Structures are given as structure tokens and as C-alpha cells.
Amino acid sequence: MRIVIAKKLLSAVGGSELQARLLGRALAVRGHDVTLVGLRPPWPRPGIPTSPGAGPIETFEAGVRCVFLPARGGAITAVADGVLPTSFAADARALARMAQGADVVHSIAREWAAVLERVARSAGAAFVETPLVHPGQRFAGGGASDVARYRRADAILALTEWEADWYRAHGVASVHVTGIGAALSVTSDALMETARVLFVGRKEKYKGYHALRRAAPMVWQVRPDVVFEAIGQRAWGARFERMLADPRWIERGVVDEREKAEAYARATVLAMPSDHETFGHTYLEAWTAGRPVIAGDIPPLREVVREGIDGLHARNEPRAIADAILRLVRDPAAARRMGEAGRARVEEKWTWPIVAELTERAYAHARGQAMASTMRRTGPERSFLSA
Fold it and tell me: d(Cα 157, Cα 266) in Å, to the nearest integer?
């Protein structure tokens, strides 16, 4: 199949960005012709090439063609698209050129989904969307126009059964559960410490970062030896926040894969007690390193993380997070068992070859849906002659 996967930002960090890149590579390994299309933002982003020219940039990575389109309207529209559910920066003509001859156009996340649906229909391709809906969150993807688009799509890809049930309850017929694969590409020989808590992700309130900072002094009252390390991109308003002034709290920005792998290896536990997640790829990274996780206490994460088996759940509030941390640092043997159980589950369910095969099946179904829709619109004789 010729597949176009579009994601507004295709940087080398971030959950859905890495999801798009690694899915494209896994599908290419299975023999598909894959093109990744994303935005060339007017500011530096890890993994996105820069050039003094104003046009698109094209690269090839692991058998995948990557095309980075300039933001239509420049920095202003790119910033608007970065904080709002808009597609001002999307160049519909350029996206249409990318889709010519494609069998499948796959939109990951919702930023460009509306324009990509039009592009796919014009190209005669199946339209597939991974909406990453976050019910309850601002711009969560549950609005009437979003739901109508999900119903029109040839296939909607969900990451969990809980998410799939949400779509079905909103009248979406063609839903497929694929999950995601682990994104940690390197490992480290560093030894697990007995009292080290790691956070990896955007340092947003909804991901539990702020509550984790407030939980740290509660933990220190009982275990003053616990070290906290927070890795990830700062939130927009971080410059106005008062940081935790304690040497046991280590703030780091975006790091490379080697540094991240070492951080996971040294950690006793990963703590990301998020209020809103579709899946949480950092849990897979922690399990790949054999480390247990503290996840948010919400339905999709109760499906991903098994309580007491490969991790714990905690509400996004300081006391609950502190109690979960203390439970694991007090019992390193249990922490190791949970980490190993998580690693085994990743190998069983969430490798990229497994996810690529499930996605390939969804694409095949979507192509059948698209062909049937074309026949309904044009009639069997005309569809046969145009095939």
C-alpha cells in the first residue's frame, strides 16, 4: 500500500510525534510505501531539519520519506495551531500533492484532520484517523464536528478498548484498537537505585507534574533520601512558576535517547499520574527498562496499567502520589517484580511489529469501506471502469 501519515508536528520527542514516526518505520519494514508529512515550524524542534530556504524539506529516515511543509502564514499561524485546535498553517494544496496516488491517508491527532479528510476524498484514498480523544480535557475532541468526522472516517484507530468504546458509544461504526509500541530505542547498564522517582513528559498540570512537586516534601518527611528527577519540555507558563528549591529535586529539559535510557535505568519508579491520557507511551518506556509506574487513576490507564501487577494508580493530588511512591520505595523487591511484569507485557502486546500488523489490517478494512462508499455514490459500472 502507498500510505501517507500526517501529523502536524513530527519532532523526535513527544508521544504522538514519536508514534507517527515509529509507526511509519514499522509499516515500511512490512513493505509499504510510507510518506510522513508534517509542519516545518518557524522555531527549532528536535528531529525536524532546518534550512535557510522557505520551501518544504524532504528527508529519508529508515526507509520512510519525510516531508516537512512550511507553515502557511508563518510564525503567527504556526503558534495559533500550536495552542488551538485549528489548521491555519496547513497548506491544503501541498497536502493534496502528497496524497496523490495514496491508498490511505492517516491523520494522527486532530489538528489537520478536517483538511486531510478533504484531501483523502479528493485523492480517492481511504481516510483513517487516530483522534487521541481526551474526554474532559479542553479541546478534547468530543465536539459535534469531531464526532461527525469520526463517523464519516473509513476507520478510526483507538489505542485502548476504553477509547474504542467511547467512539462506539458516539455512533462510530468502524473502530479498530491498535495500541502503540514502546519508543525507548536504546538501553543503559546503569543500576536501579532504591529511592529515585522519575517523571518524563510535558511538565503540565494535567500530567501530574505540579502535584508531584507538591508530593515531594511529603515523601521527604518519611524518606529524606528519595531523589526526584523531572525530564521534559516546560509548559508555556513555566517561567511564572515558583520552582522547588531543593537539591533532591532535579529539573532537566528535553534529553537525548541515551540520557533518557540512563534515567529510566537508575529510577526506582516512573511517576506520571496524569488526569488525561489516551495511553501514556512513557509507561511503555519505563517497562522496557524494567521499571514500575505510577499512573493516573482514570479509565484508559486502568486498562493499560494493572494495579499491583506492573504499577500503581494514584489520583493527581499530592497525598495520593506520595503514598504510592512510599509504597514502592519501601519495597524494592515488589518494585522490581512490577517492572519485570510490565516488560513482559510490552513484549507480548505493544511492540511496533505487532502494532504495525494491527494497523495494516485496519487500513485494509478502511480501503474496503472507501471502495464501497465510492460504489454507492457512483454505481458499480462507473466504479469498475474507474478502478
Answer: 35
